[in-house]
Amino acid sequence: MSIANAFRELRKRNEGALIAYVTGGDPSPKHTPRIVKALVEGGADIIEIGIPFSDPIADGPVIQASDVRALNAGTTPNTVFEIVREVKKTVNIPIVILTYYNIIFRRGVGRFLESASRSNVDGVIVADLPVEEAEEYKNHAEKNGVDTIFLAAPSTPLNRLEKILKMASGFLYLVSVFGVTGMREHVAQLTMQTIRKIRPYTINRVPLAVGFGISKPEHVGSVISCGADGAIVGSAFVRLIEEKYGDFNGLLEELTAYAKIMKLATKLRSQFD
Fold this sequence. Notes:
The structure is a single chain. By secondary structure, the protein is α/β, with parallel strands linked by helices. It has one domain: TIM Barrel (Alpha-Beta Barrel), CATH 3.20.20. The protein has helices at residues 3-12, 32-41, 61-72, 77-88, 101-107, 109-118, 135-143, 158-167, 189-202, 217-225, 235-244, 248-264, and strands at residues 17-23, 46-50, 95-99, 123-126, 147-149, 151-152, 172-175, 208-211, 230-233. It has a nine-stranded parallel beta sheet. The model is unreliable at 178-185 (pLDDT under 50).
């Protein structure tokens, strides 16, 4: 299922998307497919898998620690592509990978996106690629049928947002706060204001998904009820993996249970469609 089709089906059901992030290869590559399956059983609509990187500048301490665990377990970009292929044998939902441009550059933009396409990756997020420098990447992605998911922030001016929207497909990733990923107590008022500001520009063009700091059901409910099409949850799931992977079967049960709670909170799309 494509990302566009996933959002289309959710809209018919009056639901937002639960987009669940995990780091590929954390705590080891053999565990990730089962972790993904547990999240899908809990109701995750789209899975985002991070390629572990030694300098993940957009990520807070929880995801940084997961990168270290995954790298120590021998995870490479090829490993993550293999994980996606394995997952796609049993899971019929979109899989997105998150990476940094250094990884793409070292492999070669064309080769990287060809590998992604052959591995059944539906979309790619490049956390540190400015839209102004993304033309080559966008061309290769389109050639290989891979969605290009770009980031916007509360500080993104509207003229730059328009450039981003022209390049974006799959969904627009709205960074909800200034700073890095990580769990927070509350959804900031700034986040709600930014959703309301940006939504008129995304509607009927590309779905709007909100991430960074979304770690509780009430956070998910807040951003969905405010008009977002999806909520991206990462650090909360990654923290569970860090805390519980010694009891792997128990971890899988907890991931499924927490995903169910978070998914339930996406069913609050009221007046926006």
